[in-house]
Each structure stands twice: as C-alpha cells, then as structure tokens.
Amino acid sequence: MRSGGLSGGFVSARARADFDTAYDRGMRALPEPDRHWDVRTGFGSARVYRFGSGDGPPLVLLPGRAGTVVMWEPNLRALAARAPVYAVDLIGEPGRSEQTAPIRSGADQASWLADVLSELDLPGVHLVGYSFGGWLAANLAVRRPERLASLTVLDPVQTFARFPAALIVRSALTVVPGIRGRARESFLRWMSGDADAAAAGSDDPVVRVIDEGMRTYRIALPTPTLLTGTQLRRLHLPVLALIAGRSVIHDAGRAADRARRLLPHARVEVWPSATHAIAGEFPDDVSTRILTFLDDLEAAP
What we know:
By secondary structure, the protein is α/β, with parallel strands linked by helices. The protein is built from twelve helices and eleven strands. It has a single domain, classed as Rossmann fold (3-Layer(aba) Sandwich), CATH 3.40.50. The protein has helices at 13-28, 76-80, 106-119, 132-143, 165-173, 180-192, 197-201, 205-216, 229-233, 252-262, 278-281, 283-299; strands at residues 9-10, 35-41, 44-51, 59-62, 85-88, 98-99, 125-130, 148-154, 217-218, 239-244, 267-271.
C-alpha cells in the first residue's frame, strides 16, 4: 500500500503484455458486453463496460484491488439479468483504465468516479463495491451522493473498521524484490482463507488477473483512510453491507457493530463462514441478496 504522488503503471512493456493476456482470457469468461467507453476524468481515462439491458435503474460495479471488471465474473450474469450493469476498471489500478495525474486523497478518488457517472449521464445509480471498491463506493457516497440511489458494500476495507497490522505487513511484502512472488501467492491464500488457493486458482480467470495485476503493475495510490463517524452519519442513502465473518481485512464483529451504530437504518449482515472472497465463495447467495435489496427498495412506498 503506497501513498499517492505519482501515477501508477505497468513496470515494463513485457509486463503489460503478460497482464493483457490474462485480462483478455478473463474477459472471455464474462458475457459479451453491449458496449464499452474510455471515460475521460481529471485523473485519467476510466474503462467502463455495459452488460445487460432494460430500463431499470443502472448498477455500477467497483472491483477490489487488482480485480478489474473480471472480478465480477461469479455475479455478473445474475445482476445483468435484472438491469443494465456498468462495470469499471479503477483508475490507478491494473486494467484498461489509464492514470494520467496523481491521486492524493479520498476527495480525488471521489472526483474521478463522479466524473464517470456524470459523463455517462447515469442518475439514480445503485452503486456496488467489493473490498477496496467498497471503500471507493462508500467514499463517493459520503462526498458526492447526488447521482446515487443506494449503496451496497461487500466486505469493504477501511469503511467500518481499520486494517489490522498483519494485513499491512503482508501487503508490503508483495512488492519487496526477491520475495514478492512467494509473498504474493501467500497473500492471496491468506486473503481467501484457502491454503490451496494458489494451486487451485491458477486456472481461475479471476485469480489469474489479480495475480498478474499485482505482479506487473505498480500502484501509486493513497492508502484508504477510515471513514469517520461524521461522514457515515450523514450518509442517508439505503445501504446494504455484507461483512465476511472470517475476513482478514478487519475485525468483522467490530465492523458490523460500528456500521449498525452509525447507520441505524442500514442492512448490515455478517456472513459467519465467508472469507474476504465472499462474492466468489457464495456467488448465488450474494447476487440474490443484492437483487432482493434492490427489489425491496423499488417496492417501498
């Protein structure tokens, strides 16, 4: 986890080519997008794909770190069957977005994402974020909520509880020359709670894209800061928060308690057997829970 000040990018042309191979393979695992855009913002261009059709309020999906749009493979078909889905590759992360200016703060993160929604003219958005994307979604909701209809966060980092020290140490080791390859594999196994994840996941397009992204791209983004009580208390959108009981990115109980205290009308659920890989471990259940939440909102008077 690095502080902002420079723009992120691939470490070499060869690294970019290796990542592109994994990315293209991952995209083939997804349904064919109806359209894509490279949306200009004050911090670079954001690659956005649209899946599905219909006239319902759009869903906008923000992936976890290095996940790209491919991270949504387990959930995308179910979500896109309901309404148009816009999936974003994050600026400053590996993917098809391109960072052109330093991102130094939460305000900067909210700015580029608000630019995307504005340029695509998407009002009444149901914003869904996973892990780091969950923090990005919540950060936008507390700073620039004008185009949002609801917020769903899946085990979000630095939103309801702080990173544990072990996460910071393990993350830092993934960029240390000489050990970063082994550290990266260990980190992914630890995050998923699966000792066999590296071996089993080598043919999984989602795991492969994340691994290649961590290997080939140097991120230059500020570490997300914990959202304050004041910020969360002024969040008046409907909120669904799914927190993994076995997550390593925060203390699940503390995260849920703080979310319920500061967002008394939010739907906050702890899934006891889930790890941070909750959306991939329980794809049908997670997709159904999101869709039920949205159906309930539409049915409300």
